[in-house]
Amino acid sequence: MALMITDECINCDVCEPECPNDAISQGAEIYVIDPNKCTECVGHYDTPQCVEVCPVDCIPKDPDHAETQDQLRAKYEKLVAAKG
């Protein structure tokens, strides 16, 4: 399941550089996570790094993008292959 950033985000800028898939970017008002790039850090780390560093705990799982661990792993492999 991809992650999402809620409106509790304080734009502290700590999550964006932690994402190994470049899935986090500045949105119109708060940071946003691209569900097509978010693997919850599967393939990179044991836990989502953005969640680990977020000081306000505003990065839950996105219920609109439910994925199994196998699907997240497949997405990770596809992203790595696309980077070449």
Structure commentary:
This is Ferredoxin. This protein is an alpha+beta fold and 84 residues long. The chain has one domain: Alpha-Beta Plaits. 24% of the residues lie in helices and 7% in strands. The protein contains two helices and two strands. Strands 1-2 form a two-stranded antiparallel sheet. A hairpin with a 4-residue loop joins β1 and β2. The longest helix is centred in the C-terminal third of the chain and has 15 residues. It is globular, with a radius of gyration of 12 Å. The model has no long low-confidence stretch (mean pLDDT 96).
Overview in brief:
By secondary structure, this protein is α+β, with helices and mostly antiparallel strands. The chain contains 2 helices and 2 strands; from the N terminus they run E-E-H-H.
